[in-house]
Amino acid sequence: MSIVSDAIARRFGDGGPAGNDGDNDLVRRVLSRKTVRRYAETIPSESLLDTLIACALSASAKSDFQQASILRVRDPAKRAAIGALFPAMPWIGAAPAFFVFLGDARRLQRIGELRGKPVDNGTLEGFFNAGIDAALALQTMILCAESVGLGVCPISVIRNEIDKVAEILALPDLVFPVAGLCLGYPASEGHVSLRLPRSITTHVDRYDDSALASAIDDYDQRRHRQHAIPKEQRRANAEFGEAAFYGWSEDKARQAAKAEGAAFPPYLRAHGFGFD
Ligand SMILES: Cc1cc2nc3c(=O)[nH]c(=O)nc-3n(C[C@H](O)[C@H](O)[C@H](O)COP(=O)(O)O)c2cc1C
User: Fold this and answer.
1) Is residue 68 one of the residues assigned to a domain?
2) Does some domain include residue 230?
3) 8 Å CB contact between 119 and 112
4) Amino acid 2: pLDDT
């Protein structure tokens, strides 16, 4: 694996730092990480999966409330039922292992009841804290899995069918999926995806996005030269027409214009979250 400055240069498409400070195996792996959606048939061992769960649950947790839960979907019928909801993403049903990372505001609520204290964890604070704990556990599993040669793909699309997924998994009130995680040994290489320039995602002493427009134009061009979005993957031509230049920002603007997740807020409100 290349030294850290090369890995930074590849990730951001710039010159990278002059020095090689912070170089170690983990740092280099993180800089070169990539999502994998096609897996070999080999099933990761149960003890490896157990270790990865332990790693995930070692992530930091807001106030030590420990509001992440991890649900392994092992039952083939349940895997198939969830996979069938998302035919455009066949990796959901096909991955050798599939987890769902849950924001779990219920446990703290129950602990309050067990200890006779007036806990209301259906607040925005309770929701946010539980969601962050679950996201940190998710990312910790991702990095540890990748470090032992596995490939993964987080799956937030399950929230688009939240009612059906919650029923399949018997999720109670105050427990909600942040994302699923497909996991297996990679069958394809994938590629390191170019990130936005740090000049617009990093701020010093004050927030300043005055250079956004030109930086995005530049990023679009560089990303297009590395991995042009194929014609057949361009979105919503019927609605927005053929773009003269179809880069990352055109793609993301079209994607974001079709808002996802309409079912999520009513689901949460109907399942214990008042967000007060
Ligand atoms: C919270 C979260 C949810 C995601 N949901 C999906 C998903 O539903 N389906 C999918 O194929 N990829 C999903 N992804 C993967 C992203 O598309 C991927 O991380 C992104 O394109 C950047 O690629 P990279 O991870 O290889 O750098 C998700 C990633 C994150 C962090």
Assistant:
1) yes
2) no
3) yes
4) 61
